[in-house]
Write a structure and sequence with these properties.
The protein is an alpha+beta fold. The protein is built from 5 helices and 17 strands.
Length: 276
């Protein structure tokens, strides 16, 4: 019997507690597995070439969640449980386009759940951005941001929303695809006026961004050609509270002057642990 290929897509390793993983088995089956603490050396658990051969054989069958524990008889790791569960999905979808994460070409990781990709269904050569939930508990954040992009449709405030991202063909919705804002830089205090204009436009729609750090303003061009695109709307809210909107607006100059790196991105090249 042929053993299916196992790919480690994401790892959340805790040195003092259980660790969580997302695997792709046989190119089509996504598995979410919890591993008990103390079964493997921590330094092995994020390096797939070393870690995957140490795992017990994945049981056959139609399951999507599992647990690896220490076998009380053999003292070796084994699958103590597998089950098929109804996994959370982004429910409030609004765009006509749905694309499977397995159909993307992964290019560069901007954050662990944000990638530059190409999607042949849209364009084989155009770089776009994929944002997605790696683990089940992240789904509500992307559901909130999906709703926010519906509020922003055709406003020009954020990147164009290009479609919903599914986990496999006809699978649950786990994220979305966005226009890539090319030749852009993060905002600084010199860009205050342009950022105020963009934020004021957002507030004019009655939307509080919720996280106006400098890395959520992408600046293109200079002088009269300068334009600003806002990103990362997972904390955005529709509000009727003018005091909250004014407080966010007034905080902008301090946020743009902050050089601490809070809210910034860590660029990783393809081949690191996290992928779709």
């Amino acid at each position: 019997m042929r053993v299916p290929k196992v790919e480690m897509l994401a790892a959340s390793v805790d040195e003092n507690d259980e660790s969580d993983y997302r695997f792709l088995v046989g190119d089509t089956s996504f598995k979410y597995i919890t591993i008990d603490h103390g079964l493997y050396p921590t330094e092995d658990m994020t390096f797939a070439p070393v870690f995957l051969p140490q795992l017990p054989t994945f049981p056959p069958g139609d399951w999507n969640t599992g647990h690896i524990s220490r076998n009380p008889q053999t003292k070796l790791p084994f699958f103590s449980n597998t089950s098929i569960e109804s996994l959370p999905s982004i429910q409030e979808t609004w765009h006509d386009t749905y694309i499977s994460c397995t159909d993307l070409n992964m290019l560069t990781s901007l954050r662990s759940n944000v990638w530059k990709v190409t999607a042949p269904q849209l364009s084989p050569t155009t770089t776009i951005v994929a944002k997605f939930a790696r683990f089940l508990w992240e789904t509500p954040y992307f559901a909130s941001e999906t709703a926010a992009y519906a509020w922003l449709k055709d406003s020009g405030i954020g990147p164009r929303f290009l479609g919903h991202l599914t986990e496999g063909k006809n699978g649950r919705v786990i994220g979305f695809l966005l226009e890539h804002i090319s030749l852009a830089r993060f905002a600084g205090l010199d860009d205050l006026e342009a950022c105020q204009k963009a934020l004021g436009k957002l507030h004019g729609l009655g939307i509080l961004h919720g996280d106006v750090n400098r890395y959520n303003f992408l600046v293109q061009g200079e002088g009269e050609e300068k334009s600003v695109t806002m990103i990362d709307f997972e904390a955005a809210q529709r509000v009727n509270d003018l005091d909250a909107l004014q407080a966010e607006y007034k905080s902008l100059s301090e946020k743009l002057a902050d050089e601490s790196g809070l809210g910034g991105v860590q660029v990783m090249e393809i081949g690191e642990i996290d992928s779709l």
